[in-house]
Write a structure and sequence with these properties.
Radius of gyration: 19 Å
CATH architecture: 3-Layer(aba) Sandwich
Distance between the termini: 33 Å
Shape: globular
Number of strands: 4
Strand content: 5-15%
CATH topology: NADH Oxidase
Order of helices and strands: HEHHEHHHEHEH
Bound molecules: flavin mononucleotide
Number of domains: 1
CATH class: Alpha Beta
Length: 204
């Protein structure tokens, strides 16, 4: 299966079959896709919590508008953005230099360039920027699921502050969107609706 052949098959799954678990090998592929997503400067300012624990899910459900996917999907991936992008720059340079010491000089210059960019941004903008990168990673995760014929639902319908508290997140990590994954119990109740090409695209 390719992602393109699965575009009509995938849908935002509302009802998952409880107890049907995504295989570890498949979950690893989904995580690999998320890890491979492009991000600005390659800084990957996100973290994903993979939740399977039923007690944690039971706590998450009431702060997620009681949406059934939270307890019935095989896994709940909680995408969080990081607010510490500035601190991540020297970490990037140090780790990348360990991996490719022959590029140490270039990486040092790249680090200085990134630092110069980050210094000009306000904290609010750094957070906004990190959120955008996190959604690209979500997109890669959704695409990987479709290709593997694993159902998924992107979900923003939850109280982020409550979720951060339940997961006891460090202060520089903030939840922003879920991707629940598993297997559909029902087909979609209505056909897909999309605006037309004309509405969405302009060639100039
Ligand atoms: C960022 C985002 C947040 C969403 N939040 C929810 C949600 O909280 N609950 C839900 O059931 N669906 C949620 N959806 C699913 C959308 O409603 C769905 O993708 C859209 O209606 C298009 O339908 P399709 O994905 O089945 O093609 C969300 C989708 C996105 C991209």
């Amino acid at each position: 299966m390719s992602f393109l052949s699965q575009l009509d098959w995938r849908f935002a799954t509302k009802v998952f079959t409880p107890h049907q678990t995504v295989r570890t090998e498949d979950l690893d592929e989904i995580l690999r896709a998320i890890r491979s997503a492009p991000t600005s400067f390659g800084l990957q300012p996100f973290h994903v919590y993979v939740v399977t624990d039923s007690d944690v899910r039971a706590k998450l459900k009431p702060v997620s508008f009681d949406q059934a996917q939270v307890t019935d999907a095989s896994h709940v991936l909680i995408f969080c953005y990081r607010t510490d992008a500035r601190e991540r720059i020297p970490q990037y340079v140090a780790k990348a230099t360990t991996q490719m010491p022959e590029h140490a000089e270039a990486l040092k210059g790249y680090g200085a360039y990134m630092q110069g960019f980050a210094e000009r941004l306000t904290d609010d903008w750094i957070h906004e920027w990190a959120k955008r990168q996190t959604y690209i990673a979500l997109g890669f995760g959704l695409a990987a699921c479709a290709e593997l014929q694993i159902d998924s639902c992107p979900m923003e319908g939850f109280n982020t502050e409550e979720v951060d508290r339940i997961l006891n997140l460090p202060s520089h990590v903030k939840s922003i969107v879920y991707m629940t994954v598993g297997y559909r119990a029902e087909e979609p109740t209505r056909p897909k609706f999309r605006f037309s090409d004309k509405d969405l695209f302009t060639t100039v």
